[in-house]
Write a structure and sequence with these properties.
single chain, alpha+beta, Aspartate Aminotransferase, domain 1, 2 domains, 3-stranded mixed β-sheet, 3-stranded antiparallel β-sheet, 33% helix, globular
C-alpha cells in the first residue's frame, strides 16, 4: 500500500480501498481502511464483522467527502425535503449499528482465532497438488496481518480435490465461480477477442477451505488430514 499511495500522490490520483473482507487486516501497523482517500467495508452477515442483515460503511478522513457521503446515503439530502444531488436510501439503521457495536468489541479475539486456524493450515498442509497462500516469511508479508476472511488454496486438480474433501466430510466453496469478464452483465462488451489467461487460470484452481473463529482444533486437524491424503493417481 505505501507504494500504491506514493504513485497516486505523484499523479494526483485518489486511492479507494476495497476493504469488504479486510476487517482488522493491517500493513506496517496501519489497518485497512486508513490507507486511501476512502474505504468501503461490508458488514454482510458472513463477513468477519457482520450485521444481522445487509449493511456497510465508508470511511474517510476527508471532511468534504464526508458531507457528500452523508447526502448520498440520504437521497442526496442534507435537509429534509431538499435534495442537492441524486442519492439513495443507504442509511445504516440503529439495530444494525447496535449489533455491530457489540460485535466490534470481539473482532480482535475472533481474528486471533482465525489466525490460529490459518497458522495450522500453513504449517501442516503438505501436498504437492495443493498450493498454499504466500508464506509468512516473505518480505511482502513481514509487516502484514491478514484478516483470514477466507483461506484460499490452489490446485490444478481443484474439482477432484473438492470432491475428495466432500467425500470425507469437509465442506468447501469457490470464491468466486464466475470471473467478472464472463458475467452475463457484461455480455454487451466485446470480450471475445480478449484473453484473460491469469484470471482464468486462477479461477479454475481456487478453493476455499473452512475457516471460522468457532472452528475447533480437532476440526482444523481433520481438514489438514484430508488435504494431505489427496492424490490424483488413477
Amino acid at each position: 500500500m505505501p507504494v500504491i499511495t506514493a504513485i497516486a500522490k505523484k499523479h494526483n490520483l485518489l486511492v479507494l480501498e476495497d476493504s469488504a473482507q479486510a476487517h482488522g487486516a493491517q500493513t506496517n501497523n496501519k489497518k485497512a481502511g486508513n490507507w486511501g482517500d476512502a474505504s468501503g467495508f461490508s458488514f454482510y452477515p458472513g463477513k468477519n464483522l457482520g450485521a444481522l442483515g445487509d449493511a456497510g460503511a465508508i470511511t474517510t478522513n476527508d471532511p468534504d467527502l464526508v458531507e457528500v457521503l452523508k447526502a448520498l446515503r440520504n437521497y442526496g439530502s442534507h435537509e429534509k425535503y431538499k435534495n442537492i444531488m441524486l442519492g439513495v436510501n443507504s442509511r445504516l439503521d440503529e439495530i444494525q449499528a447496535a449489533m455491530l457495536g457489540v460485535k466490534l468489541k470481539h473482532l480482535d479475539k475472533e481474528a486471533q482465532a482465525r489466525k490460529k486456524i490459518a497458522d495450522a493450515y500453513m504449517r501442516s498442509i503438505r501436498n504437492s497438488h495443493i498450493s498454499l497462500p504466500l508464506p509468512y516469511e516473505t518480505d511482502v508479508l513481514t509487516f502484514t496481518e491478514h484478516a483470514w476472511h477466507l483461506f484460499v488454496v490452489r490446485s490444478a486438480h481443484r474439482d477432484k480435490l473438492q470432491q475428495h474433501l466432500a467425500e470425507n466430510g469437509v465442506q468447501t466453496l469457490i470464491h468466486y465461480p464466475i470471473p467478472p469478464h464472463q458475467q452475463e452483465a457484461y455480455k454487451n462488451y466485446d470480450f471475445s477477442s480478449r484473453s484473460f489467461p491469469v484470471t482464468e487460470l486462477i479461477h479454475n484452481e481456487i478453493l476455499s477451505l473452512p475457516i471460522s473463529p468457532v472452528m475447533t482444533h480437532e476440526q482444523a486437524m481433520k481438514v489438514i488430514e484430508v488435504c494431505n491424503s489427496f492424490s490424483v493417481s488413477g
